[in-house]
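Forwarding the complex inputs:
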Amino acid sequence: MNTTATRSGTRPRRQNRAELGVGLLLAVVGAAVVVDAARLNVPYSQSDPVGPRTVPFIVGGLLLVCAVTLTVNVLRGGRGEAEEGEDVDLSAPTEWRVVLPLLGAFLANILLIDVLGWVISGAMLFWGSAWALGSRHPVRDAGISVALALVTFYGFYVGLGILLPAGVLEGVL
Amino acid sequence: MDVWSSLLDGFSTALTPMNMLYALVGVLLGTAVGVLPGLGPAMTVALLLPVTFALEPASAFIMFAGIYYGGMYGGSTTSILLNTPGESSSVVTAIEGHKMAKAGRAAQALATAAIGSFIAGTIGTLLLVVCAPVVVKFAISLGNPSYLAIMVLSLLAVTAVLGKSRLRGFCALGLGLAVGLVGSDPVTGQQRLTFGMPLLVDGIDIVVVAVAIFAVGEALWVAAHLRRTAAHVIPVGQPWMGKQDWKRSWKPWLRGTAYGFPFGALPAGGAEIPTFLSYVTEKRLSKHPEEFGHGAIEGVAGPEAANNASAAGTLVPMLSLGLPTNATAAVMLAAFTQYGIQPGPLLFDREPKLVWALIASLFIGNVLLLVINLPLAPAWAKLLQIPRPYLYAGIVFFATLGAYSVNLQAFDLAILLVLGLLGFLMRRFGLPVLPLVLGVILGPRLEQQLRTSLQLSQGNISGLFSEPLAIAVYVIVALVLAWPLARRLRPGTSRCTIDTQQDAGPDVDAGDRGKVSSS
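Prediction (whole assembly, two chains):
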């Protein structure tokens, strides 16, 4: 009863090369952990025989071993199975035209939230995300975005006592 | 008896009008997100963490309890009406459930799932009441070395037993442990992996990690593969069952409960194995074996009960030992730490009011689920029609809001994005998410136990094995790790005898799917 059959077998070659990147990522993180731990100084202390370096060395070691093993596994044809879901269609290739604008909306919010305030940047985030995901009702989306942003702004302030940044609308809200 | 009077106290806390309201909100919210594709109970609790800081801890946990059970219920609705199960635990329900729905028996499938969930949840929670204090009594006598061993076991078990590839599980675990290291070392105060950034000194907020991995990562992943054709939802009326359905359902409910609870209580038991076992058992015992594969009601009743009983079982290690074994429990455990509550065996002693209110609200939530959701089934079915752009834009929106409101720092959003991208990568390349989250949560506690254990033995490594239970647990750990190796080396049953080099590695190739592979 294997219900999770692989359906993403369209381009094994490219997937393979991309998956080697995961091994690289693991190696980089592992190396960073080890290098970072090596510069810690270990004061001799009766009360802490383990010291601050031991666990990072173990974790870094685990990551490096995983990096090598995963690389070998991938080179031998092993493949990670992409996750399935109700709305996930694995037979289609990755839609970068959706993901990149979505990331753009997210990034814009990070840069703008402290300047423009939550109401404007949050509304832009929702509107941008909905557009990136294929919604083609700009006016209706704008209405929903502004409403959501305003409701959360006042909801957080009144209900939770958290004052989200008002930004340029300081004094208006 | 002491336990029962504590439970009554718990009910008196949980039954105040305000807390009832939170239970109701939790149940409705839980069911809604269970029904909605792309959202799960773990993600919901994560998204709600920042919001609930303003609440009393007891109220917050009453709501989380509702979400926890509600999410299970909602998941089964989706798999029956849509046949694209989101969670692995409802895969089995979909087999017969969707066939029943197609044959015009959606109402009966939903009813047997709901009533079975109620019965399994109630029995499971009762077992939790009985078992948890016993485990606590045992756990209090344990010293640091034993506790360390048990934590190692639960981490390794989740990593090595669940999931499709052990190797990829360990990759995820390593990344999680690395994230958990960020911040200042608790003993010497030196900064680790902060790269000179002052905002990282306090470590990465677990709320941000959970929201990033569960919500942002999921939204990005779905965005990359969004199904363009609208899924076909089978319309449904009021759930009900005839006399024959009752007769065929009650035994599977009880048997499913018997499978589910113990598996849930074990580290890495999960819900997949018991639901599958329940399905196979019902198929074998059924008087209508010919109906299996065409919509047999037993095949919905049993696995659904097993699923919910396993959810209740999971709470035993979580409340009595502070060990989470599924994603929702992990996030709830993170919530404990956020409130400054130390999870572990002392929880029942230090926070009896909170724990018993939580357990009492599980009973209440179960009743609410049954009473509210049977009439609301058609409304939930409508929820499946929500336009996907709004659904996923909403997830991104609320994830951002939640992560930002913790510290009101745009920097946290940058971390959210980086870890969200990691969550995306992990989904794409089949790295399981749970070991990472557990690594972040348990890693620092594991290190603390290790340091205390060796402090007690003055640095002598034998201090790790000073208690008999610790030794026993390490033997189990060794067995868990050595199991696939032993299977390969055994002559005759081995699949790859030619390539001896491959036997040396801990990796399991894509062809090895663990126990649930074939029937």
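Confidence is low (pLDDT under 50) at residues 492-519 of chain B.
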